[in-house]
Amino acid sequence: MSSSELFREPSWRGLRPALPEYVAAEPAVTDFICRTLGEYGAISQLLLGGCAVGMFRFQPAGGDAKLVKLVPESRRSSMMQAEDIATWLAARDAPVVAALPGYPVWDGDYGIVVMPYLHGRRVEASEQDMALLGRSVAQVQKKLASHPDRLRWERATAERLADLMVVRSSLATGRLSCGPNPERLATLARDPMLDFVLQDMERVPLHGDLNPGNVLIVDGKAILLDLEDVFHSVLPPILELVLAIERYVLVVVENDAHAVSAGRAFVKAWQSNMGVATVTGSTDLVRVFRSLALRSLCVLASAEQHGAAMPDEEWNKFFLLEQLAGRRAHAIALIFEEGVA
Ligand SMILES: Nc1ncnc2c1ncn2[C@@H]1O[C@H](COP(=O)(O)OP(=O)(O)O)[C@@H](O)[C@H]1O
Ligand SMILES: [Mg+2]
């Protein structure tokens, strides 16, 4: 894996993605999609954070809406793998959405994925929604554990971590200097307390990118979208839990009591659906949160090193998350406290 592949352009840059907005698609795109589907209907383009992405809602006159994704050739391999995983999981009743039979197809420079359109909403930082999320995350992880490609995913994960460690040591030694605050980045890279490899912990295949844009609540169920990180995310499950708590709870809810009740609902639901006795063992959780932020900063550094323009806002997001963990240490301890009903 080359370091340039460590980074995938996110659909949103912020921390709290709204649901998409919709605008009428251009006639040429409408024609292309209708021809591909062999059906006619109204087509609108999704805007995420105000930006057009290659995603469309197709509404035929008398049937169910579909979501159409146009994927560039550069993402072909990861998209094909992600769609295979989605199909495999959906066939085992996991809470994901799979492409309709016959998709993806390739037409010239684009891959076309068509899937059922989900009328969903974002996950809220409530006990109910967080319990739904914990349950779905556990269901997906449990299925992924027996996926036939697991060994290959383990190798890809090891390669990716090795690439990130090279970036980290370049930052630590000053050979690489990136972002709006290179000194701070170097200090974090040198911090021996931070460890995103977690060598001694047991690893399982994870969703790998449980940000709030990658889940929809549909008919009382949390549906996990976007499986493009699974095949390099065979990692300790605590990393998935910590990311979810950070993004769905701590960045959204300032009040500690509220954060603790929502966070605990997530952890408990995950734990009971996984059937595991302990979630954290003796792990220092604030360190895990901070290490996750460092990992993301290393991904940005790698992207910048390979010529991607990375706005300050994106760097600052992870500097902020690194600090958030220390500030919310009390809530984090209570969220993951074991042996309390
Ligand atoms: N099947 C679907 N039905 C309805 N909306 C969807 C569907 N798939 C994705 N979306 C919307 O598009 C957003 C981005 O989808 P995602 O699969 O995560 O794409 P990306 O790879 O660009 O991140 C989601 O947050 C969701 O709002
Ligand atoms: Mg996504």
Automatic annotation (TrEMBL):
<feature type="domain" description="Aminoglycoside phosphotransferase">
    <location>
        <begin position="65"/>
        <end position="232"/>
    </location>
</feature>
<dbReference type="GO" id="GO:0016740">
    <property type="term" value="F:transferase activity"/>
</dbReference>
<dbReference type="Pfam" id="PF01636">
    <property type="entry name" value="APH"/>
</dbReference>
<keyword id="KW-0808">Transferase</keyword>
<dbReference type="InterPro" id="IPR011009">
    <property type="entry name" value="Kinase-like_dom_sf"/>
</dbReference>
<dbReference type="InterPro" id="IPR002575">
    <property type="entry name" value="Aminoglycoside_PTrfase"/>
</dbReference>
<protein>
    <submittedName>
        <fullName>Aminoglycoside phosphotransferase family protein</fullName>
    </submittedName>
</protein>
